[in-house]
Amino acid sequence: MQSKGFIKLIAVLLALACVYQLSFTFKTWSVEKKAAAYAAQFPIDEQSAAEQHYLDSIQNLTVYNVGFKKFTYKECKEKELNLGLDLKGGMNVMLEVQVEDVVKALAGDSQNDPAFQQAIAEANAAMKNGSSNDYIGDFVKAYSRLSNGSPVAAIFVSPDRKDITLESSDADVEKMLKRETEAAIGASFNVLRSRIDHFGVTQPNIMRLPNSHRILVELPGVKEPQRVRDLLQGTASLEFWLTYDAREVLPMLVSADKLLKEEASHTAAPATENATEQPAAEAAAPTAGEGLIGEIGADSTAKSETAHTGNFDQAQNPLFAVLDPNYAGGAAIGAAYKADIATVNEYLARPEVRDLFPADILFKWGVKGDDHIDGRYYLYAIKVTTPDGKAPLDGSVVTDAREQYAQRGATAEVSMTMNAEGTQKWARMTGENIGKCIAIVLDGYVYSAPRVNTKIDKGQSQITGDFTIQEAQDLANVLNSGKVPAPAKIIQDTVVGPSLGQESINAGMLSFVVAFILVLLYMGLFYKTAGWMADVALLMNVFLLMGVLVSFGAVLTLPGIAGIVLTMGMAVDANVIIYERIKEELREGKGLSLAIKEGFSKAYSAIIDGQLTTIITGIVLFIFGTGPVQGFATTLIIGIITSVFCAIFITRLLIDWIVAKWGSISFSYKWSEKFLSNTHINFLSKRKVAYWISGALIVLSILSFFVRGLNLGAEFTGGRAYVVRFDKAVSAEEVRANMERVFSQIEGADESSISFEVKQYGNENQMRIVTQYRYDDTSDEATGEVEELIYKALKPLYSYDITFDQFRSTQTDVNGILTADKIGPSIANDTTWNAVYSVLFSLIAIGLYITFRFKRWQWATGATLALAVNALLIIGIFSMFYGILPFNLEVNQAFIAAILTIIGYAINDTVVVFDRIREYLGIYPKRSLYENVNNAINSTLSRTINTSGTTLVTLLAIFFFGGETIRGFIFALIIGVVVGTVATIFIATPLAYDLMKKRAKIDEEK
């Protein structure tokens, strides 16, 4: 092998990079272990809060030093391996900005026009039945027709809107509505992004889904799902408040600090925490005299010596120890670590402390920690000036805000424009408060508090500061959020309890370890020394795969673990191809070195073609899938790339090293040396029987599909699905009976109300319940009603008095609802079409690739038809056996992922056979096509059986040990591997042969 030194260098550098990336995960685990040990000294009901307090307090403290750089705990968390919701527990929420609400808000009073209302109804109907996905276009056309050609512009003309006049065409109005809808989605996204930072969860994720009005939010470890729903769907509240100057407030803070000290001295309870137990107090404080506390110190007899140095002692300065006044300035009266915010709030809320401050003062925190002051949060003093206690100006008056670079200097600024009403009020506010600060507040948090330099009476303002362009963009987004015409509404949410998450981790790790050991033993016991070298490369592959996942910020899910395990089975495929080639060369009498060289060289094309086709399906899966399915696709794609690198380069380096050191290497034991090497089976003679059998099975599958249908999951039908755990074994029949008894009592109940799917889910004390009741209503009220009805039905099946709150959340009780899925009809419709598109695109893409690589459409046709047969048979088996087999055969997104994975896997096997046929046609041109095809199948039979064997070993390990959540998914893969292997030999290759023979006959006749 050429450039061995370069390959070694690349391997070492990749290994070091992976060690570096994975080290952050181990460091965060170490810190969190210390946090758990710290929390263990508290009562059980306080341990969770104590652990979180510890972690919050060290957010911005250095916990990891790699020599050339130091990292805080917060930075380490950002670089660690992310666990998905199915492993960590938490909540996945899909929100959608309703275009109907945006259009109505922009229409104002004109929405009462009958033609307007009818046009909205028609656009809604078109969206609901899936006949169109252009809501605004449908609305404009419908209104024009229903109003007898009246201009749509008349509905939306407004004194504050300059982009639409009575002369504007319908096309101009349509563009405006689409522009405003996009702006509403963008503003909602920014509001949601700011809100999720305050849920107290680590590694939240939010993304806009392309080509839709939807936003996906993932919140690992969230403890209060209902609170999350309420906060996410709330209307954005942007406000402009007058403020106090810090110089006015600091003397009152000093008095409050003194009062709290006196109260503490009269408390008999001894202190139970010292400085070593409060990491927040260990952070370096500012130097003496910094901040406004130094300015007021000379006039205050209450100031202690610790205030001079900035080192505040908890006993001497209870308030200043957690709210540091050295950082006061402008409207900010101090700053505190995140861990101390609750303590500050508690201090300032005490009646005796509150009495020290004016009645018109409010305290509001900054939206995020400031990195310039070690991640502390500023506390602002807000002045209430209106009789009703509301802000003097709200965000509805802002018509536009955008970031721009200042005319002088390299800093950025924000330009803000207001409507006529806002311009008038803004002129009065700024004119009366020159030299003072005005706080910009969104959802109760201060985003900025700029100082007024002059009266602004033109409605156009420039907000300046030491902004980067990104900070200016964020502030502009906040200002634009005030004009969001409609809040985003939840159309799908999934809640996974933490106990189920831990069980998933345990099951996933067990299946991983068992499968890994089985694959290592399989290769070592079949290929002897070379097999053990392949095992070393496999270990390197898993190590690289995990490192790459972390570096890309990928999320590891349970299907992702399945993807890793499956990748291990597929990773040895390349080694099997290479080793079987080397054994063939050795049997032909070639020397060891030449056989190794030829074996690797001749195996490259089959390896690359096979792996590329699998990557194609992985990419399609990533594009059309969501959540865990994307996690599976990510690990599959990365795993294929790392496995090819390890099989081709790392294995070659190890084999060459063995040969150079000991002069020889074994590729088999005596019993495996000639395994399937001299077979002379006439496969093509059996092709017509294979056609009849496969045709009969397809007919059975189609009949079952139309007669029995499929066990469609809520993702395809819409509705609500729950996994409920009981404290004892229960039967599906008694759960179903209780459900029917309660739901049948609903006034006006129809068949869908009392139709349920109830199945055992894993152990005998767990049931999966799917209901269609009010499935088209995704509101929280409907969800609450459904859950209350289920609670009422299932409560008698518990042996203790479980409360509704305990039933809805497994935070305090391991029993109750473990997972909850709510899927609206629009999501179900999109999921259905995405599933169809993904399978079709995969088949088309693979067919085109085979045509390109092998230059013959006959080969692509044979391969594609065999893949279609494989997919149809898997669907048929799921249709025929659901409700019969003792595990869940639900057709969901994971099932579609299994279909696509099998398409990629099966074509891998087919490509290897086709590659050998192509080779034989070149080497033996005088042999008949019939003979060459048969010989090619026989010569690759050992590779086919070995590859399928290693893959099946890994899949069986996951099937038995991976847990109930993915058992149906793995069952589909097992069926697909078996059917795909048989289809390659008896369908794909014979079909390609028949088509090529027919073509040759036509050419002869010509």
Label the structural class: alpha+beta
Q: Mean pLDDT, as a whole number?
A: 81
- State the end-to-end distance: 48 Å
How can the largest sheet be summarized?
8 strands, antiparallel
Strand order of the largest sheet: 5-6-4-17-22-19-21-20
Q: What is the radius of gyration computed over CA atoms, rounded to a whole number of angstroms?
A: 34 Å
Strand segment count: 22
Percent of residues in helices: 55-70%
Structural features, described:
This protein is 57% helix and 12% strand. By secondary structure, the chain is α+β, with helices and mostly antiparallel strands. The strands form 5 sheets. The chain has an 8-stranded antiparallel beta sheet. Strands 7, 8, 9, 10, 11, 14 and 15 form a 7-stranded antiparallel beta sheet that branches. The protein has a 3-stranded antiparallel beta sheet with strand order 12-13-16. A hairpin with a 6-residue loop joins strand 12 and strand 13 (412-418).
